[in-house]
Amino acid sequence: MPSLSTTYLITGTLRGTGLEMMHRLLDGGAMVIAACRNLVKATNLCRLQESGLAQGRLRIVQLDVTDDVSITDTIKVVAEPHPRGIDVLIHNTGIADVKGYSKLLDHGRQTILHNINTNVVSPVIITQYFLPLLKTPSADKQLILMVASSSGVAEVYGISKVAVNKMFAELAIDLKDRDITVAGIHPG
């Protein structure tokens, strides 16, 4: 059960798993910072922010996980009202930029690189940028979670998710000495 003093930052919150996680965390009394790429499409988030469930504990911020300038801007927006930092960083952003259930050899370099960049590289970069906000003494332990599908329905997506699992294993080793726990979760 989340605590009133626990602050979560979740990427990829417009729908699906990210939106449901926010509902559950807010229901448990946590402070949630919802990061999404397109604020215009954030109607579900805005409704949730205005609902009685949020009670002033939901902030919506714009974040394109593939854009370093956007990441830097988001950190400034998050750090100012949260000087004690964040307790939990949840990487929920992911794409399956493919043409249905096609074969791996049907995809060009750009499609493959776009999937790898968004699903694998971006969580590493986001973690690098947000690490100073996780290092504040706001909790006994800070946590980084990666939400990943265990299915990998499309070949390019599946390859990126296998890489995500290895990447988070490496992050766990890198951050162990800083007392930051890294875990991958596979809902559903």
Topology order in helix (H) and strand (E) letters = EHEHEHEHEHE
The helical percent reads 40-55%
Gyration radius (Cα, Å) is: 16 Å
Number of structurally distinct domains: 1
**Neighbour order of strands in the largest sheet:** 3-2-1-4-5-6
| CATH topology value | Rossmann fold
Largest sheet: 6 strands, parallel
- SS-based structural class? alpha/beta
CATH architecture: 3-Layer(aba) Sandwich
Return residue spans where pLDDT drops below 50 for at least 5 consecutive residues. none
Quick summary of this structure?
Pfam families: adh_short. This is NAD(P)-binding protein. The protein has helices at residues 16-27, 43-50, 68-79, 109-134, 155-175, and strands at 7-11, 31-36, 58-62, 88-91, 142-147, 180-185.
Sum up the structure in keywords.
single chain; 5 helices; alpha/beta; 188 residues; 6 strands; Rossmann fold; 6-stranded parallel β-sheet
Describe the structure.
Belongs to the short-chain dehydrogenases/reductases (SDR) family. Keywords: NADP, Oxidoreductase. It is a single chain. This protein has helices at residues 16-27, 43-50, 68-79, 109-134, 155-175; strands spanning 7-11, 31-36, 58-62, 88-91, 142-147, 180-185. With 188 residues, it is α/β, with parallel strands linked by helices. It has a single domain (7-185), classed as NAD(P)-binding Rossmann-like Domain (Rossmann fold, 3-Layer(aba) Sandwich), CATH 3.40.50. It has a six-stranded parallel β-sheet with strand order 3-2-1-4-5-6, with helices on both faces. Helix 1 (16-27) links the parallel strand 1 (7-11) and strand 2. Helix 3 (68-79) packs parallel to helix 4 (109-134). The radius of gyration is 16 Å and the shape is globular. The two termini are 19 Å apart. The mean pLDDT is 85.
